[in-house]
Amino acid sequence: MTHELLRFATAGSVDDGKSTLVGRLLHDTKSVLADQLAAIERVSNERGMDAADLALLTDGLRAEREQGITIDVAYRYFSTANRSFILADTPGHVQYTRNMVTGASTTELALILIDVRHGVVEQTRRHAAIAALLGVRHIAVAVNKMDLVNYSKADFDAVRTDFIEIARPLGIEDVTVIPVSALVGDNIVDRSAQMPWYEGQTLLEYLEAVPVGLDPRELPFRLPVQYVTRPRTATHPDFRGFAGRIASGVVRVGDEVVISPVGRTTTVTGIDVLGTPTDVAFSPQSVTVLLADEIDIVRGDVISAAESAPQVTREINATVCVLGETPISAGQRVLARFGPKTVRAIVGSVTDRLDLNSLAHLPHTGALELNDVGTITLRLADEVAVDDYDVLRTTGAFILVDDQDGSTLAGGMTRC
Question: Class assignment of domain 216-308?
Answer without folding.
Answer: mainly beta
